[in-house]
Design a protein that fits this description.
It contains twelve helices and 15 strands. With about 325 residues, it is of the alpha/beta class. It has two domains: about 130 residues, ornithine cyclodeaminase, domain 1, CATH 3.30.1780; about 180 residues, NAD(P)-binding Rossmann-like Domain (Rossmann fold), CATH 3.40.50. The strands form two sheets. Strands 1, 2, 3, 4, 5, 6, 7 and 15 form an eight-stranded mixed beta sheet that branches. Helix 1 packs parallel to helix 4, helix 2 packs across helix 11 and helix 2 packs across helix 12. The radius of gyration is 19 Å and the shape is globular.
Length: about 325
């Protein structure tokens, strides 16, 4: 059994944003082609604690290097006020020959990186016809910082950032880190989420909201919104937008904004192709051209977060760790 600790995962991910985006893209292609198994994630909630949860995400990725396992990730938002991270996670990878667990990997960094890579991949795909002059970020936590890091890899040359958080202190700290990450870029704090929506043609929303509270009226036509936290946008605002997901059946559950929008509308006509379909069409000249959003419609990318991304990235890092001699081998964990 190989144990990969937090610092080793950080070492393996450092400066490899482009690689991570490609691992995520490959997983999406395989998923669209039916070469994955991704059961619905399991949400463990606690009576009287509506904000806390632990989620189990089992998955199998096929292709030339099959992998299988599970991510077990806890989200306790009050941790932020305690001075520690909201999310913590572990990933177990199992042998596909014996089924035995062969690695336990610290998963919070992998979870954040795969989420950010998914957002950065969508940002690159969905802005090809009109590149944004900057990026607005609503929510100043770990996920949006990772999204900024990965978008920097897929959309180099961003010259301006608009930053908003309900906590002015968090917003100021985030802005300082963003300025270090993008030297030369203009970084400004804005006073509301609406101002952030209006600031740029590319917006990332990553908060801990559990109920919709924000509409899209402030966004200019053609804005691409990366709705990573899934529950910020008012359902009625999504009905007049193009909505792109990672898997429709996964996205329409657990009272996400899109789930509520479909319940209200009684149809799914406002859900556009999945990101996997966009990737396959982009590579297939016979497909008749890639998806191009109408310039007068807002595009909302809301990936539910498929466990196959965690398994794909964990397997990628496990291969690299073994090649570099990283991790701790534990004997005697399993019976002889």
């Amino acid at each position: 059994m190989l144990i990969l600790r937090h610092r080793e995962v950080a070492q393996l991910l450092d400066g490899r944003e482009s690689d991570t985006v490609e691992v995520v893209a490959d997983a999406y292609r395989l998923h669209e082609q039916g070469d994955t198994a991704v059961p619905h994630s399991t949400f463990l909630r606690f009576p009287g604690q509506p904000r806390n949860r632990i989620i189990g995400l089992p998955a199998y990725r096929g292709g030339p290097r099959p992998a299988a396992g599970m991510k077990w990730i806890a989200s306790f938002p009050a941790n932020i006020e305690r001075g520690t991270q909201r999310a913590s996670a572990s990933i177990i990878l199992n042998s596909l020959e014996t089924g035995r667990p062969e690695a336990v990997i610290e998963g919070s960094l992998i979870s954040a990186a795969r989420t950010a890579a998914s957002a950065a991949l969508a940002a690159e795909l969905l802005t090809r016809d009109r590149r944004p002059d900057g990026l607005a970020l609503i929510g100043c936590g770990v996920i949006n910082l990772e999204i900024l890091r990965h978008v920097r890899a897929t959309l180099p040359g961003l010259g301006s950032l608009a930053v908003y958080d309900s906590s002015p202190r968090r917003a100021a700290e985030f802005a300082a880190r963003a300025a270090e990450m993008l030297p030369g870029a203009r970084v400004r704090l804005v006073d509301s989420a609406e101002q952030a929506l209006a600031a740029h043609g590319l917006v990332s929303i990553a908060t801990s909201a559990i109920e919709p509270h924000l509409d899209l009226k402030a966004a200019a036509p053609g804005t691409v919104v990366l709705h990573i936290s899934l529950r910020d946008l008012l359902p009625e605002s999504l009905i007049d937008a193009d909505n792109i997901v990672d898997d429709t059946e996964h996205a329409l559950r657990e009272r996400t904004s899109l789930d509520l929008a479909v319940q209200a509308a009684g149809h799914r006509a406002f859900i556009a192709p999945t990101i996997g379909r966009l990737l396959l069409d982009d590579a297939d000249d016979a497909a008749g051209g890639r998806y191009a959003p109408a310039p007068d419609r807002t595009v909302v990318y809301a990936p539910f977060g498929l466990g196959v991304l965690d398994i794909a990235l964990a397997d990628h890092l496990l291969t690299a760790a073994r090649a570099q001699g990283l991790g701790v081998e534990v004997s005697g964990f399993l019976p002889d």
